[in-house]
Amino acid sequence: MSAAATEVADEVAAELSELADLLADLPAAAWDEPSLCPGWRVREVVAHMTLPMHASAPVVVLGLLRARMRWDVLADRRARLDARQTPEQLLDALRAPRMQAWTPPGGGATGALVHAVIHGLDITEALGLRRRPPVARTRLVLDGLTAPRSLSHFGVALHGLQLRAQDLDWSYGTGRVVRAPAVDLALVLSGRRSASP
């Protein structure tokens, strides 16, 4: 693994550990609060984040076949199933070394970091928690989100816009300038927030 990939992998582990520490202090009722993911509570988001700890590769493939190769259908079914676990079990999954070393197929460490940070924000933003990832980590996420594969995955229309971070030296695109904190731009790029004023 290159030094750059190792750095990103370390950020993934840190993000998951920090999120687990934050969630461990939540009251039990917060796990049933809605997240930014439509139809998912906090517990479904964490269950989705930790899917590799709940289902083996053959189980996932079988689930995909049953879902007629629709990943969104499989992801929703698995999240609802795995969310039946206790908060303690879900937190253990977030902290597991195997989870923290996991990378999505074709996504590498950057894909894992985008997955961890964005779903973490799905929880913390919905609950009104003040926790935000460090700026250096968010820069890695912004770079990952503006890769062609991510842009097509999230389907965010950015034509005629330039996104410019207020808290670090980062920008993307050309056109009307949209200035916002880096984390807010990550929410725009992942389809959680509109770029419109």
CATH architecture of the domain at 3-131, by name, is Up-down Bundle
Total strand segments: 3
Mean pLDDT: 93
Question: Biggest sheet, open or closed, and with what strands and sense?
Answer: 3 strands, mixed
Describe the protein's topology.
Layout: H1 3-24, H2 42-49, H3 51-54, H4 57-66, H5 71-82, H6 87-95, H7 97-100, H8 108-127, H9 135-145, H10 148-154, E1 161-165, E2 171-173, E3 176-180, H11 182-189
Parallel strand pairs: 1-3
Antiparallel strand pairs: 1-2
Helix pairs in contact: 1-6, 1-8, 2-5, 2-6, 2-8, 8-9, 9-11
Question: Which keywords apply here?
Answer:
Four Helix Bundle (Hemerythrin (Met), subunit A); mainly alpha; three-stranded mixed sheet; 58% helix
Describe the structure.
The chain is mostly helical and 197 residues long. It has a domain at 3-131: Up-down Bundle (Four Helix Bundle (Hemerythrin (Met), subunit A)), CATH 1.20.120.450. The protein is built from 11 helices and 3 strands. A hairpin with a 5-residue loop joins strand 1 (161-165) and strand 2. The longest helix is centred in the N-terminal third of the chain and has 22 residues, at 3-24. The protein is globular, with a radius of gyration of 17 Å. The mean pLDDT is 93. Pfam families: MDMPI_N (PF11716).
